[in-house]
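Translate structure to sequence.
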């Protein structure tokens, strides 16, 4: 069995796929299998995956007859994978040559750590480096990135997917990826893993992360809808989340409802935030704003 299973979901990313595949198979650490799950592409991605399977016996292919989304694609790859460690490289991202070597060595030295992630270089849709790092764009000031990160991850996602590698038992503990989510399935999984396992952050870029308009993150409505689902899932799964943290989570649910145009849903969430922590000032402010909006709407 290979030491590392690399999961690569792909849907109509044929223009990027060969670069992603090559970056994985060219790693300085070569004890791996690459599981490519094609989620019913129509752009020739399936044929690209089949060709690479003929060229390298470390490639495993899974083909969906219907498009199911990232969560199902990741789970399908996970189901056929066999490695002790599980890593991720989406079809539009690129690994730097020593990515796996750096992270596997750390996991072998620190058996208590469940997941290792790192910084990444951001590139545009054409593969040009922008000069920015993932951390400068997606980490808040003073972001805690190593250790016990459960409460941090209950509030926001700050892990770069293609940098993540974790132990198989850690992702099994999380139950894989929630297929009810069409985005943010990675965030929910990392948060669940962090409940039991400490994380470690490599403060150097190990990947090139593609940030482009085709990304699901550019769909504000879709992201808000799935953020509500992910946060409610965490609140239901872990009822002992500390009150201040729960209050912040309900606040985020409320702001997501506002993005969706659901003022009543937002009001309920802000009230739940205040019930969790009466000192949550911003929830009081938002609650007042929404009440005023609803009253005006009723009187107009």
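Result:
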């Amino acid at each position: 069995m290979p030491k590392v299973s690399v999961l690569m979901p792909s849907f109509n990313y044929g223009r990027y796929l060969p670069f992603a595949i090559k970056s994985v198979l060219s790693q300085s650490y070569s004890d791996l299998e690459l599981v490519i799950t094609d989620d019913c592409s129509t752009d020739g991605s399936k044929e690209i995956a089949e060709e690479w399977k003929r060229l390298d016996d470390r490639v495993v292919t899974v083909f969906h007859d219907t498009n199911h989304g990232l969560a199902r694609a990741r789970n399908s790859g996970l189901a056929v994978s066999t490695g002790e460690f599980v890593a991720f490289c989406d079809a539009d991202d690129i690994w730097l040559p020593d990515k796996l070597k750096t992270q596997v060595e750390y996991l072998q030295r620190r058996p208590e750590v469940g997941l290792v992630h790192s910084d990444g270089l951001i590139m545009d849709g054409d593969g040009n480096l922008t000069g920015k790092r993932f951390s400068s764009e997606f980490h808040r000031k003073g972001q805690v990135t190593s250790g016990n990160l459960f409460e941090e991850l209950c509030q926001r996602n700050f892990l770069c997917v293609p940098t993540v590698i974790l132990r198989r038992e850690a992702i099994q503990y999380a139950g894989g990826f929630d297929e009810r989510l069409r985005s943010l399935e990675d965030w929910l999984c990392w948060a669940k893993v962090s409940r039991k396992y400490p994380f470690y952050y490599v403060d150097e870029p190990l990947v090139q992360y593609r940030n482009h308009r085709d990304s699901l993150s550019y769909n504000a409505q879709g992201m808000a809808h799935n953020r509500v689902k992910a946060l409610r899932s965490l609140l239901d799964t872990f009822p002992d989340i500390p009150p201040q943290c729960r209050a912040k989570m309900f606040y985020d649910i409320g702001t997501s409802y506002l993005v969706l145009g659901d003022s009543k849903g937002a009001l309920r969430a802000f009230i739940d935030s205040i019930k969790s922590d009466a000192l949550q000032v911003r929830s009081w402010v938002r609650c007042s704003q929404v009440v005023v909006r609803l009253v005006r709407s009723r009187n107009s």
